């Protein structure tokens, strides 16, 4: 586990300069698509923590995307806040709402929890559509400004993409840090066996609420970047289907694997754009690909790699066991003490 | 004198079923107490009531003289009570070492401190010592789910000892474990009891295991305590023999 996450860090740091330079030849539409991929990867990273690591089924990530997007749109257009401040406020708001939504998760699990979060998503959508005084209703909020940071205008497609890339890197590093810490271990324990975890002193309540809140904060952060990316928001992109697509993104990419969200977001948000050339067929091809992934590997695309790695390490251990078998019996007697005296 | 554990008139009813029906007993510092009785006599329910997994219908549980009835399992664990389960309860997708680190980490510092502190909560050395003690060295980096049943049982027990508990409740530690591993397990328990002064309560059906490990045995039948005493007396108690063999 530890070693695998260290490899993740390496991949992150290698991928960053490549992703920095690679899209420089793209036109503005192409840049929009890769930018959307980054934004949705952030949202999926959050859901991957809640669902993939902590095992809490949520159909609310699209709603948090909406909360972040609307909060940022309102703060930047109506209150005149700069984007960085609106970004922090949107993430904090989503964190707080995530804590509240976490409370039902203390009582219900699995598909029941999916229903509760589904209801929440519908409520958020209805608020966005009906509370015109705040959200503009179906007319939405237009002219969401792109940021000016340290005197340089990041409004053009390429600089804004690079800003998104930097934010994505920072958030991915923060996630990596979190997952490698004892918290990451506790989240996994929550997913695998909550009763046993509690008997080992893991505070189930606190970690459940945190898993929801941190995952939601990533959703809100993504929404806060989505608003200036598209520059105009209305309720439609935050309807229930958005939460389903995000869930699919995490599952198809590999729930509980660090790069699963990035791979999944490629399938959910970039592949459809690449397939547009096929005319009316693109949705069918996209659906078939996703179906195939889930059928071949229920643990997602990156789950395939994981399975292959497990298989290899077990084969290696079996070989080591076979080699060590004759000496194991003779080795007893040396470890017949906990050795407290020697080490303390 | 205060007892490590004191259970007074504990009752747990499930509707009309009196699973535990007025049980009182004490456990003394450093003792290994056996808890035996026929299947369905309420032993595991009693454990779950003591450990906060179930809320007792009536009665009281005291730890070092302090009432702990109604505390959450995690709170009790942080007060130094730990347990093993009748059915295997390891974390299959974590390595053996990670399982043990997890078992100790919540006792190290505050939650915020753990987020920013050492990745292993400073427990790798302690985990490896526990791995060596239970003779699982060759499996340290293996996923726990890939271990044999007996090895997982050993890991399960090792996890219960990671945080240096005062009181450990073991629910059928010997169930399904082969004879070699059973001898190993018994020896490990005796060493921990002697070296760390940990107090044990052991539920077990394997009579040889109970009688040779425990200094005192409590026998339950139909939710009540039937007999209590040293193994030699329990072995020959007609009431106990009848409860086991039937009327």
Automatic annotation (TrEMBL), chain A:
Pfam families: BPD_transp_2. The keyword Transmembrane applies. Keywords: Cell membrane, Membrane, Transmembrane, Transmembrane helix. One of its GO terms (molecular function) is branched-chain amino acid transmembrane transporter activity. One of its GO terms (cellular component) is plasma membrane. This is Branched-chain amino acid ABC transporter permease. The chain crosses the membrane at residues 7-23, 29-49, 56-75, 81-103, 110-128, 160-179, 206-226, 238-271, 283-305. It is a multi-pass membrane protein. Its main location: membrane. It comes from the Bacteria. It is found in: Cell membrane. InterPro entries: ABC_transp_permease (IPR001851), LivM-like (IPR043428).
From TrEMBL, chain B:
Pfam families: ABC_tran, BCA_ABC_TP_C. It comes from Azospirillum lipoferum. SUPFAM superfamilies: P-loop containing nucleoside triphosphate hydrolases. The keyword Metal-binding does not apply. Keywords: ATP-binding, Nucleotide-binding, Transport. InterPro entries: AAA+_ATPase, ABC_AA/LPS_Transport, ABC_transporter-like_ATP-bd, BCA_ABC_TP_C, P-loop_NTPase. Residues 5-247 form the ABC transporter domain. This is ABC transporter ATP-binding protein. GO terms for molecular function: ATP binding; ATP hydrolysis activity. One of its GO terms (cellular component) is plasma membrane. Gene3D superfamilies: P-loop containing nucleotide triphosphate hydrolases.
